[in-house]
Design brief:
The chain is α/β, with parallel strands linked by helices. Helix content is 56%, strand content 9%. α7 links the parallel β2 (131-136) and β3 (158-159). α5 crosses α12, α6 (113-125) runs parallel beside α7 (143-154) and α18 (371-382) crosses α20. The protein is flat and about 75 Å long. Residues 107, 109-115, 195, 250-251, 253-254, 276-279, 283 line the site of guanosine-5'-diphosphate.
């Protein structure tokens, strides 16, 4: 996401770097380039205008003229203004004092509401909540079934009208679901409402009726980021028709430009609360304006990486890994395999690298890193006998041929892996002897 904008901005800044004082012309030229970058990213015009005006004003101010490194200051200002335009602080869910907290989803059909309902349920449950999903989309014939499928994957019960009782009234279903949640100790209710392909008054009225019946603690407007400026128009229509507290942006993974993300807050005055970045239930998180700005400016998003690790690994795994690192036994291919599968649990390797600072420049190479390469390495190790994994030195020529055949790879692949493994083993020995290899002043260096 945001690749286009990110590329443009990093090249604007690289032409600034190395300059001492910034002249009026430098500032104007930079502002012009940023303006073009934002327009190309499909950001709404009023937003672009205000953004540029603020950058210019601040770039002419003391913080830049007195700075030792003016270019760095301009980058800092752009970063701060990006955070601001994306909403400033991270918007957290407001839980009701008396449960259940009622969260209602509204948006066009295809926006990703049902998928988001499941993601939100799973995300809440990971934090010890006990959500209930509610099927109040009774317009589309298979909407209820779709929510049930999503609920099953998320491990969350679904409240839906009894089959055979006719179509049912979505307002009644919503009302009854809150009662059901109260009796069954669900502390959050997530209501999926009906969408249409385009904005229409009847859909708005139904959503407003559900809203009036259950008084939601949070109304989330769910919108597909890939529709660009249309997202902003639809957002305005829903604001007038139903009203909402916050926005959930979906399909950010398919949105190279970022226009919706950068415009919606400014135009609607409502913060973006959630970002959805893929079809899997895990591709979902709170929207953090500061981290997003950091990604756009290719400053990395290490915080998200760390949180993902904390969420993904359980304590036992971390302890096992730590004890492998600390033990006197030699590092084996089994340890290697275990470490690799831990890292892989965090997601596709390209996504992980994308969160490291400065990696934006290497996007093409990252895109070429194929998770299949890792599959191949795992297959090779799994084709070895336990003895070979524990004592890799015994893997001679004929064994390599057998392993290559067993794993559907070439002998050269096996050779490459064994060589790399011996390097890793050497590194581990050094680390076990104390200190990181090559770090001056540390024991063992
Ligand atoms: P609804 O009509 O608003 O309930 O939308 P759905 O939840 O049925 O989603 C419509 C389509 O978008 C489905 O094919 C989803 O798999 C897909 N989808 C939803 N969220 C995302 C996302 O964040 N990224 C991508 N790539 N696809 C998504």
């Amino acid at each position: 996401m945001f690749e286009t904008l990110s590329d443009r901005l990093t090249s604007v800044f690289s032409s600034l770097r190395g300059k001492g004082r910034l002249s009026e012309e430098d500032i104007n030229a930079t502002a012009r380039e940023i303006r073009l970058a934002l327009l190309e990213a499909d950001v709404a015009l009023p937003v672009v205008r205000e953004f540029i005006a603020r950058i210019k004003e601040r770039a002419r101010g003391e913080e830049v003229s007195k700075a030792l490194n003016p270019a760095q200051q301009v980058i800092r200002i752009v970063n701060e203004e990006l955070v601001e335009i994306l909403g400033g602080e991270t918007r957290q869910v407001r839980f009701a004092k008396n449960p259940p907290t009622v969260i209602m989803l509204a948006g066009l059909q295809g926006a990703g509401k049902t998928t988001l309902a499941g993601k939100l349920a799973k995300w809440l449950a990971a934090d010890r909540n006990t959500p209930l999903l509610v099927a109040a989309d009774l317009q589309r014939p298979n909407a209820v079934t779709q929510l049930q499928v999503v609920g099953e994957r998320a491990g969350t019960p679904v409240f839906a009208p009894e089959p055979g009782n006719g179509v049912g009234d979505p307002v009644e279903v919503a009302r009854a679901s809150v009662e059901h949640a109260r009796r069954n100790n669900h502390n959050v209710v997530i209501i999926d409402t009906a969408g249409r392909l385009g904005v229409d008054t009847e859909m708005m009225r139904q959503a407003a009726d559900i809203r009036d019946a259950v008084s939601p603690d949070e109304i989330l407007f769910v919108v597909d980021a890939m529709i660009g400026q249309d997202a902003v128009n639809t957002a305005q229509a829903f604001l007038d028709g139903v009203g909402y507290d916050a926005v959930a942006l979906t399909k950010l993974d398919g949105d190279a430009r970022g226009g919706a993300a950068l415009s919606i807050r400014h135009i609607t005055g409502r913060p973006i609360m959630f970002a959805s970045t893929g079809e899997k239930l895990e591709d979902f998180d709170l929207f953090h304006p500061d981290r997003m700005a950091s990604r756009i400016l290719d400053m990395g998003d290490v915080l998200t990486l760390i949180e993902q690790a904390q969420r993904t690994f359980d304590e036992a795994e971390v302890e096992k890994m730590a004890s492998t690192m600390a033990s006197d036994d030699d590092f084996t291919l089994d340890d290697f395999l275990q470490q690799m599968s831990m890292v892989r649990k965090l997601g596709p390797i390209g996504n992980l690298l994308g969160m490291m600072p400065g990696m934006g420049q290497m996007r093409d190479q990252i895109d070429n890193i194929d998770d299949k390469d890792l599959d191949r390495i795992q297959a090779i190790i799994q084709s070895m006998t336990p003895g070979e994994r524990a004592h890799p030195k015994t893997i001679n020529g004929s064994r390599r041929l057998r392993i290559a055949n067993g794993s559907g790879t070439q002998v050269s692949d096996v050779n490459g892996l064994v060589t790399r493994f011996f390097e890793a083993q050497k590194m581990m020995r050094k680390m076990k002897n104390g200190g990181m290899p090559g770090m001056p002043g540390m024991p063992g260096a």
